[in-house]
Amino acid sequence: MAAPFSGGCACGAVRYECSAEPLMMGNCHCRDCQRASGGPFVSIVAVPKDALKITGEVKYHEVKADSGDPIKRGFCGKCGSRLFGFPAAPFIGVSAGSLDDPSWYRPTFDIYTSSAQPWDYMNPELAKFPKMPPM
Question: Is the pTM of this model over 0.70?
Fold first, then answer.
């Protein structure tokens, strides 16, 4: 994947462009991500905070992540599309489903597998971590 890349919400009111290569890509199976996505996991593209330019009105909801740290979930205030996760880290998690071209998304890990649902099929080729991997 070559930067820049872009994406946005379902209605087009929120758009973003990233000027940097992704730091990492993976799937989070924590209960908070399950609730936020309505599915078994959230697929994220982690990018440096200063490389993401966001336009439009983003609404935020802060929760305590499974790690115990706060995380802000960013979504479109008009259509409700989940777009971003702002963890207590120097990166932003961009929802892979919001990319203009999600075909280049290539996860390399599954995290919070201890919370994965028994009916969720996980790619056996990806690295697995019961919680967060060592940073």
Answer: yes
